[in-house]
Structure formats: structure tokens, C-alpha cells
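protien #1 (seq + structre)
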Amino acid sequence: MVNSEEERASLLCMKALANRGRLDMVFQQMASHPQYLESFLRTQHYILYMDGPLPLNYRHYIAIMATARHHCRYLVSLHSAQFLRVGGDPLWLQGLEAAPPRLQRLDHINKVLAHQPWLTARSHIQALLKTGDHCLSMAELVHAVVLLAHCHSLCSFVFGSGFDSDSTPSPRVPHSMTPGYCLCDAANGNTALSSAPAGPTEKTPRQRSLDSSCELSCHQEQKQKIQEEQKGDRLHSQTLLHADMEEEEEEEEEEEEMCSADPFRFITDPEFGYQEFARREEDHFQVFRVQDYSWEDHGFSLVNRLYSEIGHLLDERFRNVASLPFPHSPDLKRAIWNYIHCFYGIRYDDYDYGEVNRLLERGLKLYIKAVACYPDSSKTPLCPLSWSPVKASEKVHVNLLVMEARLQAELLYALRAITQYMIA
């Protein structure tokens, strides 16, 4: 029985270690919120490895395509290595044009969901399901959409937490760089937002060894039970075990380094990026009103029916992030969530958007928008200086809110388009 949050976090760390052979930096950060981490791990393991419509090599290649949209070399190399481990064809890693046509056809919806999800339309779904000789089944499409949205949102967490620090900056086409305008601002008469002064970039090096807290917790009981006369032999065995584990970790890192392909190989139309929904010129893109199509009333049941059990796993993630203890006002969490959804044209009729400007500092708003909409070009932005005294777990909490709100936004647009296709 787990008696404390520390023990629970340690057990989850070891779960992640067992799954990958070493402790991933993403999981180290999320371990400050063990209940959330557990639901995240379950979801990720399910969509990548459990029974599902798509074969394993397709899943990791789709993950490569999704993370390449944000030039996240860390995740591209990780999934490239996993792609090879599950039997993927190395030739596919030469670029998107080397992949099977069925995967290439996902490129457009990948691009749209990553940057402008409100463009997702019934016609896109129809093209994937009905046109040509390389169609997807409905179940395969839903699996692919969930995986794309999961990976896009994870890129925001990776860059927001500074994990992609070993990447070299990729050439970028500017897209009216960061932030300052959304439906919240428009509703309250604010038409511009000055940029926050840039602070020094703090980068986190990749760590090879086990996290010390996990290591201590995992071996503490063994050490207590070892009799005095057996210590020499036991310590010698542990030394050999750690040497083997470190060698395996080095081999995995070398493998990922070999798979560190240029993300641009896996994308088309690199100029396509986020544009301000509130300033768009197209009148036919209406605000997405949650009262008309919500996760709870519509999205959950549809995705759970078309891709068994995934709705429950995703819903658990949304509920867990909503229930995480936050020392500040609960209203602040809702303001952050609704502010992020504003970037994607999603609006709640029962919410007073004046709360966003009252509760969120300008610097915090800049940070949230950069991580949500421009994660790759923001290059590991720091939390605002006014938040620097806050505990590290609370900064992780903000990044988790950004990730989950973005995930839900992409899913809402994709599932609404699928619903429109099914009832047409």
C-alpha cells in the first residue's frame, strides 16, 4: 500500500523506468503530481502500445510527424528510436515522402490540428476515409487523431519545461510572433499587449542516471534486510547491476542520437503556423461554443465508441488536472484553461471573460500563449519573474494545464468534424 505522495511518485518513476529502460525527463517533471502522472502514463501506453486499430510502427511514425510540426527534436528522436525497436522500416526515416501513402495522407490534418484546429472540416474527414486507394478506416482515423493531439500538446509541455535544450534552433518563418490578442482581450477592449522583456534562458541537460529519490526509495527496503555479513556480495552485485543499466542507458541514448533526424523531413508547408483566431479575416469560421459541442456531452461518448476505452483514459486526465491542488485561487485555474481555449476560438457562454484580465498577469499571459501556440519558436521560455518564488510543482502545474487544455481543444474540433461527417 502506498502511504505517501513521495512513495507513490517513486513507484511511478520505476514504472516509467521499466517501460523505457531509463527515467524519462518528462516523467521526472510530472512526478511532482503523481495522480496526474499515473493517468498520463496509462493514456500514453494505451495509444502507443496496447491493442488498437493502428500497427505499432504506424503509431510511432505518426508521433514523429506530430512532434516534427513543432520541430521538437527531443520527441522526434525518441519516437524514431521506438519506431525502429517495434520493427519500423529505417527507410521511412529518410522523410515523409518515403512513408506509405496512408501515412502521408495524414499530413494535412496533422498540420491543421497542430496550428489552426478550427480549420478541421467534414471534408477533411471524408477525404481520409473515402477518397483513393489508401483510405483509413474510421477506427484508424480516430486512433490517429488522438495520437496527433496527444503529441502536439506534449510538445508544449516539453518546450515549456525546457527539455528540448539539446536542439539547435531551426530556421523559422515568423508568424506574427508572440502573443497578445485573443477573444478575451477583444471582449474587454484590449487590442494589443506589449511583449515581456526576455529573460535568460535556463536549460536542463539530459540526465542519464536514475533520479536520486527514486533510487533511494527503490533500494531502501533491500538495504535494510541485508545482513551485515552479506553486504559485500550484495553491494558488488548492485554495482554490476548499475553498470549494466548505465550501459543500456548509454546504448539507448546513442540509438536516439542516431535517429535524431531533421524534423523538417517529416513535414510539408513549414510556413504554415498559428494565426490569431480573433484577428482572422474569414467570416465563415465561427466561434466554437462549448454549449453546442462539449467534451462531456459529445466528444467523450463518440471517441469512446470508435476507439474503445480511450474516452475514459482521456477523461481521467482532464479530471485529474482539474483536481490538482493549486495554492492560488481556483478561479485562476479556470481562467488559464478558458484563456487557452480562447486562442483556438472556443468560448464558454457562462464565463465572464473579464476574469482573465483580472486574474492573469500580463507576463503570465504571454508565457501561456507562447507555450500553447508557439512552443518551438518560444525556445524554452521561463515562467514570469513574478512567479519565480512559486514552487517548482506549481510551475509544472501551469504547464500541465496548458497541455491538457490544448489537447482537449484539438480533440473537440476533430471529433466535431467526425460527427458532422457521420450525420451528413
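ok now protien #2
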Amino acid sequence: MGGARDAGWVAAGLVLGAGACYCIYRLTRGPRRGGRGRGLRPSRSAEDLTNASYDDVLNAEQLKKLLYLLESTEDPVLIEKALVTLGNSAAFSANQAIIRELGGIPIVGDKINNPNHSIKEKALNALNNLSVNVENQIKIKVQVLKLLVNLSENPAMTEGLLSAQVDSSFLSLYDSHVAKEILLRVLTLFHNINNCLKMEGHLAIQPPFPKGSLFFLLYGEECAQKMRALVYHHDVDVKEKVVTVIPKF
């Protein structure tokens, strides 16, 4: 994958972060169950790892303890502390690989659905640090885009999504060289947002979204040019999906 493409999907994940986190997730469902039996064993010292900020690289056994704690506890304070420690640890490249190999990415990802908004934010921060690793990106990116597409189907989420500040590299997802699966997802995202805006009667007027927001990216001239170029894409499915978007320009 090219650097621009990687930056693009990371930006998609950032749509869910920062100030938009509460708006986007306030109507989502509670935490998912399952994912047990990954071979992570309990340890009495697991909680000790959450009692302070660790600036050193944690070893595999320590990370294993943290992941077991995160997966097994229902205590929101411990969950948040474990996510903070994992997020800090994921800033180190060695730990990024270890956490992936221990099956930690889906464990952290499950916490995005937690009803506690602070936990959601900590989980997103941890995933953002984990996403620096290229192999981790493969495991995270379609999951992030799938979540965005699901949220975009709900009109109640539209304002939160479109108001979020997003780096301009997000538009690299709409380039013709992007893998078909990803391209179809981001086109569906755009299509869903168009439908929601149409339902709310916002397409004919200029909504009060700030500069640098997802709205300004999607409805700006650069994106319009990308949509017109995708009309000539070699894949029929992509062409058909573009047709559902491009009339809005």
C-alpha cells in the first residue's frame, strides 16, 4: 500500500476521535460479548501495570497480562486504565507487533462499543497508536471503514460525522488505485451521507459545518474531481456506485 493510501484510512479512523467522539457514539450499542479463550491467562499482578504511566517498553508477558485484564474485567476504571497503559505502550514499535500477535487489536477494538464515552476515546487513542504499524493497519482499516459506513446509515449520526475535523489525506481513499473493497466502502459512506442530507433537506442549502470538516472535504472541488475520474474506473461495481454519488455535484 502506498503512503498516501495509508494516511487516508488512518484519517478515516480519526473521524471517530477528538471532539466528534461523543456525537458519533452516543447512540451506538453497548459492549459486545465474546472473544474469550484467546489463551490469555490471569495474573494477580495485572492491575499493578495500570497504576502508573509506563515510559519503558513492556515485555510480552506484561502486555499479555494487560490484555487479559482488559478482556476479563467489567470495572470501567480498570478498563480505562488498561487502555491508557496499552495506548502508551503502543507508541513503541516493538509493542505494536507484540500486541497484534497476542490478539490485542480486536480486544481493544471491542471497547469502542462500550457505553462509557471516556473508554471509547481511550480505545480509539490506543488503536490510533497501533495503526502506525503497517501490519496492524491491515487488521484495523476495513473494520474502521465498516463502522463508519454503518454509522453513516443513521441520519442521527450525520451531523457528527460531517462536523468532524479530518485531514485532507482522507480524500486519497477516493483514488482509482485504492483496492476495490475499500473504494466501495468509502463510496457507500458518501452515498449514505448524501441520502441522510437529502432526507433532512440540507443538500439545497449550505449547512454550518466548519472549514476542515469532513463536509468540506466531501463536497469540495478536489473530491468532485476524484468522483468524475472514478466514472472511468475499470471496475463495473465501482462505476455503478459512483453514479449514485456524482449527481450530487
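The first helix runs from residue 3 to 14.
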